[in-house]
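in:
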């Protein structure tokens, strides 16, 4: 009989590493350890490896690491990482809450390294199927993955957590250039700019943090002769990280957000969008301004910020990438040629829906409860949990690191609780206890269920 795992996690980025930590610590505290297995498409742990730019720093405090807000005594805190690396006194002397992105990536890799035996690296999950009994009820999910050699693995799980992150958002105007190595998304910047080593004239599209960081990196490369920063905005807006506004990233704000009506949630997301979307750190904005000012002093023309400009057409030929730009002020259009273009156009979160499509009959529109578990139809017993795909119901912090430690604890407790429920035998011949036959939704109180938002 095939082993049924307590939990399979798809993806092993920060969210699922934090979950692995929470499950281990819960097991140590209560004596019933949930045995997870994670499946990661990358060959080893990597966190935004192609945006680890020199001089780039975290935008949130190191205290919002994988464990501190859930368990400050955890050995997986960033401070304990520093202690084990022998850098704690020196970090204190930096007098900063914001480590470099390279250092935080090393911390995440260090934490993930403690769970190497619980992660199957180099496998891409391509299908999740229901494991159905003769009576039509679903006892588990079958997770199918493929390794680099094309070999397929199939595993069964009582619980599944999907944490696949965002995928590059490519606006429609650029879709015709897919496959052209000269046009690439910011998520692959360092890899692809190295492949375009002979590019002399480069465009950056977007107005957020990634666009600003990439612009600063490009202007510092002496072989790049011209950089155009193209944005629809009139100016780069600073991220609002003032104390009262930052409360939207506190864990207790998740409770408030979840308890709101759909209309209230939408209003909150609009009101606080400037904390995360199409904005940049004020210090970085000041650095950009200084670069342009120094260019004015030198009467240079190497760098341009094309504000209120939109790319309305794009094509490619042997001579380069050709963008038709429309000036939002004058309405005039003109064509510009570039050797390469970087699309800092953000991310979309749809991969989890595509992955769970074979379960749609049981999971509906993927409405989640307060503990991130997808509401399922009666007879569907596996727990399906989402991380980083619940912004609409749980708030702006859901896609960020801010609540990762606390969320992992909540999900870990929910999974442990579900495993304590009586399980129907795998052959399906015995009669399931009444509690096991009930819909997961039916077993929760009304306030914990997320209402559907039109």
């Amino acid at each position: 009989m095939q082993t049924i795992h307590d939990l399979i996690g798809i993806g092993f980025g920060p969210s699922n590493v934090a979950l692995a930590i929470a499950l281990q610590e819960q097991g140590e505290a209560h004596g019933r350890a949930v045995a997870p297995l994670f499946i990661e498409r990358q060959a080893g742990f990597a966190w935004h490896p192609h945006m680890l730019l020199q001089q780039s720093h975290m935008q949130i405090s190191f205290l919002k690491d994988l464990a501190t807000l859930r368990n400050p005594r955890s050995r997986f805190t960033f401070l304990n990482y520093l202690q084990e690396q022998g850098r704690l006194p020196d970090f204190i002397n930096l007098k900063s809450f914001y480590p470099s992105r390279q250092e935080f990536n090393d911390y995440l890799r260090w934490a993930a390294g403690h769970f190497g035996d619980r992660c199957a690296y180099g496998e891409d999950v391509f299908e999740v199927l229901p494991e159905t009994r003769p009576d039509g009820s679903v006892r588990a999910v079958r997770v199918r993955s493929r390794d680099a050699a094309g070999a397929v693995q199939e595993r069964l799980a009582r619980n599944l957590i999907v944490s696949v992150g965002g995928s590059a958002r490519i606006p429609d105007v650029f879709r015709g250039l897919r496959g052209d190595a000269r046009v690439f998304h910011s998520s692959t910047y360092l890899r692809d700019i190295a492949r375009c080593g002979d590019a002399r004239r480069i465009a950056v599209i977007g107005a957020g943090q990634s666009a600003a960081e990439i612009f600063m990196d490009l202007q510092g490369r002496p072989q790049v002769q011209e950089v155009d920063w193209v944005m629809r905005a009139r100016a780069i807006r600073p991220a609002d990280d003032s104390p009262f506004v930052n409360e939207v990233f506190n864990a207790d704000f998740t409770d408030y957000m979840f308890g709101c009506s759909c209309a209230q949630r939408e209003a909150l997301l609009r009101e606080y969008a400037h904390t995360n979307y199409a904005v940049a750190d004020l210090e970085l904005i000041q650095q950009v301004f200084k670069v342009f000012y120094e260019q004015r002093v030198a009467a240079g023309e190497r760098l341009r910020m094309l504000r209120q400009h939109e790319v309305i057409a794009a094509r490619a030929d042997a001579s380069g990438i050709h963008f038709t730009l429309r000036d939002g002020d004058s309405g005039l259009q003109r064509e510009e040629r570039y050797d390469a273009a970087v699309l800092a156009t953000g991310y979309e979160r749809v991969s989890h829906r595509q992955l769970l499509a074979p379960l749609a009959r049981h999971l509906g529109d993927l409405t989640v409860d307060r503990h991130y578990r997808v509401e399922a139809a009666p007879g569907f017993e596996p727990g399906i949990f989402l991380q980083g795909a619940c912004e609409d119901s749980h708030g702006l912090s859901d896609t960020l690191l801010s609540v990762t430690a606390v969320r992992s604890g909540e999900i870990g407790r929910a999974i442990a609780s579900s495993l304590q429920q009586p399980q129907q035998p795998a052959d399906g011949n015995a009669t399931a206890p009444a509690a096991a036959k009930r819909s997961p939704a039916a077993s929760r109180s009304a306030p914990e269920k997320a209402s559907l938002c039109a």
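note: The mean pLDDT is 92.
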